[in-house]
Amino acid sequence: MSAVQVARDAGILRVTLNRPEKLNAIDAALAGELRAAFEQAAGEANVRVVLLTGAGRAFCAGQDLADPGVAPGSDLGATIERCYNPVVRAMRALPKPILARVNGVAAGAGANLAFAADIVVAARSASFIESFSRIGLLPDSGGTWMLPRLFGRARAVALAMLGERISAEQAHAWGAIWSVVDDAELDETCEMLARTLAQAPTAALGAIKTAIDAGAGSTLEAALERECGLQRVLGATGDYREGVEAFAAKRAPQFQGR
Ligand code: LHQ
């Protein structure tokens, strides 16, 4: 059985972390399959959104601490380089939206995988833990970049240093995730959002992702230039034509994703 289940459906690539008996803890096999899933999503024109979730009661418990490859004394840098950084790079380089459906606890690299998605929806019973410091490590998987952006520096530092569990509601109240819904509504909410994103003008969504990530670390002048270049490209797409025609005709647009 694969550590990551991948299924395609009407423009949605469903990617499910699938080691439920281990709370979907990440080992080398899972990391490799996850990276491959995001790379597939990039290469397939009919994939217009990725829906990332966990099987069973957890979203992801982070690194599998029972994996001999990360035993104390081993080279964790090598594991990060081989397993984790490629996944986060593939997620942020994917010019398509990633929707994280956080169904349960997200700990360590599992939390940072969720935060590396573009839109995060969590069940009310879900929680996030930057558990790294509890075992003597620092947040990886892009956490030191993403946490201050999502939570602000004060909360990012405290979350990372204290390793305290925060509820989905707390993460939402702090503006770090898009929404929190009752557990019974998680499926319907995520399905609706995924369908909406799968019918959206995909090139525009990809450009939004690229420009907002790049804009966070650039000057206003550089952002203006970047917006100009990307808008030039988007202005030549069929989806822009369709959007304008649909607006004029007072009908819903039918975006083809190109
Ligand atoms: C686990 C795990 C787990 C193995 C639960 N591994 N078995 C990158 C590269 C290199 C090195 C290291 O790290 C990294 C990045 C990282 O992600 S570091 C952070 C690693 N993750 C953690 O430290 C989280 C550890 N887990 C927990 O704190 C708790 O299990 C959480 C809060 C996730 C869930 O708590 P509970 O709901 O109370 O469940 P539990 O603790 O009873 O866990 C259920 C089972 O899953 C249990 O096994 P058992 O045989 O006793 O039923 C756990 O041992 C196992 N499990 N996380 N990461």
Plain-language structure description:
By secondary structure, the protein is α/β, with parallel strands linked by helices. The chain has 2 domains: 4-198, 2-enoyl-CoA Hydratase, Chain A, domain 1 (Alpha-Beta Complex), CATH 3.90.226.10; 202-249, Lyase 2-enoyl-coa Hydratase, Chain  A, domain 2. 46% of the residues lie in helices and 17% in strands. The chain is built from 10 helices and 10 strands. The chain has a 6-stranded mixed β-sheet with strand order 1-2-3-5-7-10, with helices on both faces. It has a 4-stranded mixed β-sheet with strand order 4-6-8-9. Helix 1 (28-43) packs parallel to helix 2, helix 4 packs across helix 5 (153-162) and helix 8 (202-215) packs antiparallel against helix 9 (220-234). Ligand LHQ is lined by residues 22-23, 25, 61-66, 70, 76, 79-80, 84, 105, 107-109, 129, 131-132, 135, 137, 140.
Short description:
The protein contains 10 helices and 10 strands. It has helices spanning 28-43, 76-93, 109-115, 143-151, 153-162, 168-173, 186-198, 202-215, 220-234, 238-248; strands at 4-9, 12-17, 49-54, 58-60, 98-102, 105-107, 119-123, 127-129, 165-167, 179-181. Strand 1 and strand 2 form a beta hairpin.
Write the layout of secondary structure elements.
Elements: E1 4-9, E2 12-17, H1 28-43, E3 49-54, E4 58-60, H2 76-93, E5 98-102, E6 105-107, H3 109-115, E7 119-123, E8 127-129, H4 143-151, H5 153-162, E9 165-167, H6 168-173, E10 179-181, H7 186-198, H8 202-215, H9 220-234, H10 238-248
Parallel strand pairs: 2-3, 3-5, 4-6, 5-7, 6-8, 7-10
Antiparallel strand pairs: 1-2, 8-9
The structure holds ligand LHQ.
Ligand LHQ is lined by residues 22-23, 25, 61-66, 70, 76, 79-80, 84, 105, 107-109, 129, 131-132, 135, 137, 140.
